[in-house]
């Protein structure tokens, strides 16, 4: 397969690290898409729509024609309410207080477009996370570390937030912001050659 240029439309350092797992060279375009969610959207639709919005902004800034562009969006869902990134420390506390001691869902939507042949795919994955209860002082201390402030649902499963997590069902990396296993399969279907998949049986 010919070399195709990959662009990740994301300012998230986590998504860059996850895409690095594919051993595929890629470049990054940071987008500033509007992240407003319409109240009638289901969580699955919300993450897919937001990923497509980020992708559309990125596509308008890419001038290499042989490019596959990828964008993603992650939200946390509890009792049907969609939680994005907290606006301030008080909101982070309210989110964490709501999530602790119970289960919630993490949805990541991914939108991909192959500019070479016009092929596109949008999909989402859901991971269920069960959290331990933690004391108010611990939650306040955790917020002061700064870790929750740029994360959907106000925690990072890959960081100190792991101390809140009892168990998960589904793809761990989907919680971190990119369902990398499923993304690799779909990128191949869309014409990318993935070095990390070459040695399969
Ligand atoms: C729940 C959870 C979320 N997150 C992160 C993943 C996403 O980066 C972030 C959700 O915000 P997003 O709006 O999905 O992404 P972003 O603003 O960080 O980056 P961009 O839009 O430029 O791609 O929360 C974790 O890192 N760990 C977790 O455990």
From TrEMBL:
Catalytic function, reaction form: UTP + H2O = UMP + diphosphate + H(+); dTTP + H2O = dTMP + diphosphate + H(+)
Site (Important for substrate specificity): 14, 74, 158
CDD domains recorded: Maf
Ranges annotated as spanning the membrane: none
EC numbers, comma separated: 3.6.1.9
Cofactor: a divalent metal cation
Gene Ontology MF terms: nucleoside triphosphate diphosphatase activity
Compartment list: Cytoplasm
GO terms, biological process: nucleotide metabolic process
GO CC annotation: cytoplasm
One Pfam family it belongs to: Maf
Top-level EC class: hydrolase
SUPFAM superfamilies associated with the record: ITPase-like (SSF52972)
Catalytic machinery residues: 73 (proton acceptor)
InterPro entries assigned: ITPase-like_fam, Maf-like
Key words of the record: Cytoplasm, Hydrolase, Nucleotide metabolism
Source organism, top-level taxon: Bacteria
Function text: Nucleoside triphosphate pyrophosphatase that hydrolyzes dTTP and UTP. May have a dual role in cell division arrest and in preventing the incorporation of modified nucleotides into cellular nucleic acids.
Family membership noted in the UniProt record: Belongs to the Maf family. YhdE subfamily.
Protein name stated in the entry: dTTP/UTP pyrophosphatase
Organism: Alicyclobacillus acidoterrestris (strain ATCC 49025 / DSM 3922 / CIP 106132 / NCIMB 13137 / GD3B)
